[in-house]
Amino acid sequence: MNRLEEIYACGEKKDNTHTRIAFSEEDIKGRELFSKYLKELGYKPYLDEAGNLIARLDGLRNDLPPIIMGSHLDTVPDGGKYDGVYGCVGALEVAEALVEDGNKLDHPIEIIVFSDEEGICFGKGLLGSNAMSGLPMEGFSEKDLSIDGKVRKDVFGNYGFCVDTMTKAARERSAVHCFIEMHVEQGRILDKANKSIGVVTAIAGVKRYEVTVVGETNHSGSTMMSDRKDALVAAADFISNVPKIVNQYGSMFGVGTVGKINVTPGSMNVIPGTCQFSLEIREQTKEKLDLLEKQLFEYLKKACYETKLDYKVKTVADYEPAPMDERVIQSLQNICENEKIEYQKLPSGAFHDAMFMSRTFPTGMIFVPSVKGISHAPGEYTKLEDLENGCNLLFKLVQVLDKTNFD
Question: Can you tell me the distance from the alpha carbon of 58 to that of 95, in angstroms, rounded to the nearest whole number?
Fold first, then answer.
């Protein structure tokens, strides 16, 4: 796993942080290094129309669609060594092991590094997997500005592709046998349970809202408490009850978060007239997601009604849950049980490229533990033995899936 360290070093900054934001010099450096690994093994890597880096290992029957393995190399600012990168390096090492063993599959194998999974540069991620899945490419414009003020058209051009043609990266369902993504968990479930493998059942659905509570701005000294229409008080009532409502109506994996809040006019001696805040909820099934939405906004309505305030809700994102393919799940369980591997079935609360890929292709995910659940941070760490366990499982899985009928 020295490759993990070498790719991590590509993002080193002068202040000793490590960052490879998509399309940055550091990201390009990391991709060039990964391409070097591929070429050293005899592969011929290329970029598709959405900037995905792809390499192909022929099978015994190249008329069959490929088994695709991989993840992403881009990071959040000062991110860890494993997020995304492990799935790419692990896929490479599994393909390398298959060649060394002389174990040629019927299906070709493709190793993929998806472009811009994190979405830091332009504020919208999962670009490469969105494009390959053939789903609508919404929210992408040549005129979009990056975090450092560059136009998307120019940034993409320097990277080797353009907005107008990135939909050409789409593949038909029949063009892919299946997709497997290996990833660090980015949570504490496996670490706390002392399990070395997570068999992912689904990627959580997510709904995000912009909520505005509208009261009445007034003098804080001369307005009696009984006469006030304080937007912040009503908002605070709702926000403080989000955990209780999610715990009551959600599954054990349901979560709700208020991450941003803005109060106006924002003066010490003025009663808040408006309070705007974000609300995000995540759940593993559409039924549970819809139930949380219903219960949360019923409480918001009650909180505002009791204080004679108005409110507005704007939905800013709505992603349905993405279940993994049952045949892949069952294959993973069978291998773990036959090999006496300690595993746990669990959903993913975080987004991954597998989310978009699962909408079109049979898809599965393997998790390995994140020590203390730390991710998107320099302290991100997974034990070497767990990294190896994941790779060994993936090695066995692709051989099983090679013989699996997904029709």
Answer: 11
**Dihedral of alpha carbons 345, 8, 352, 330, sign:** negative
Q: Tell me if the bond preceding 108 is cis, omega within 30° of 0.
A: no
pLDDT digit string (tens) for 29-77? 999 999 999 999 999 999 999 999 999 999 999 999 999 999 999 999 9
Give CA separation, 284 vs 254, 287, 293, 355, in Å. 7, 9, 13, 12
**How does residue 14 score in pLDDT terms, banded at 50, 70 and 90?**
confident
Q: Which helix (H) or strand (E) holds 394?
A: helix 384-401
Q: Using CA atoms, how far apart are residues 248 and 320, in angstroms rounded to an integer?
A: 21
The tokens for 44 are 């011929």
pTM, 2 dp: 0.92
Superfamily of domain 2-203+321-401, CATH level 4: Zn peptidases (3.40.630.10)
Cβ neighbours around 200 below 10 Å, total: 26
| Residue 288, token pair as written in the block | 């549970």
CATH of 205-319, one of 3.40.50.11010, 3.40.50.11740, 3.30.430.20, 3.30.70.360: 3.30.70.360
Q: How far apart are CA 279 and CA 212, in angstroms?
A: 11
Q: Phi/psi at 265 (nearest 5 deg)?
A: -80, -5
Question: d(Cα 187, Cα 378) in Å, to the nearest integer?
Answer: 15
